[in-house]
TrEMBL record:
This is VanZ family protein. The lineage of its organism: Bacteria, Bacillati, Actinomycetota, Actinomycetes, Propionibacteriales. Keywords: Membrane, Transmembrane, Transmembrane helix. The keyword RNA-binding does not apply. Residues 62-149 form the VanZ-like domain.
């Protein structure tokens, strides 16, 4: 169902990605030091990832796993959606831990785990793909970059507030 919506409205993925890039560092800067709020938002983001990647579908698989290496482009809505999926997770985890690189590595490993579960559990009706892992990891890298920007922004704003 989500794939159908994205194919019918391909601008949604690009718009969402731009919104994350613009709003992410500002929201992240505000969340620094608000660990409980950040943890709740992170849990919600992880629930979305789990629902979109591990909830069984009624689809019959022709083939379980795909090995392909395609870089996401704005026209490839499913690949861009896979990028978007991990941006908030890593942004929030990076801000919570104040270690964006650790958040990036954890998310990339988490994506690999999801793809492995999809490969080993064909009853889910989900196919594993190296493209999904690659797109998720690109999203994780973007989330880490946004977390770095959020932490820098927070430090600068805190410095300005202390000077006043």
């Amino acid at each position: 169902m989500l794939s159908t919506i994205l194919v019918e409205h391909p601008w949604l993925t690009t718009t969402t990605l731009v919104a994350l890039v613009v709003v992410g560092p500002l929201l992240g800067a505000w969340l620094v030091g608000r660990q409980r709020t950040t943890a709740v938002l992170l849990a919600l983001a992880l629930l979305v990832v789990a629902a979109l990647t591990l909830v069984p579908t009624s689809r019959d698989l022709e083939r379980g796993c795909w090995v392909e290496w395609t870089v996401p482009t704005p026209g490839a809505v499913e690949l861009v959606a896979n990028v978007i999926l991990f941006v908030p997770v890593v942004l929030l985890l990076g801000v919570l831990l104040q270690r964006p690189l650790l958040a990036l590595l954890t998310a990339s490993a988490g994506s690999l785990l999801v793809e492995t579960v999809q490969a080993l559990a064909p009853a889910l009706g989900r196919s594993c793909s190296t493209n999904d892992w690659l797109s998720n990891t690109i999203g994780a890298a973007l989330g880490a970059l946004l977390a770095v920007l959020a932490l820098v922004l927070h430090r600068r704003l805190r410095g300005v507030g202390a000077a006043v």
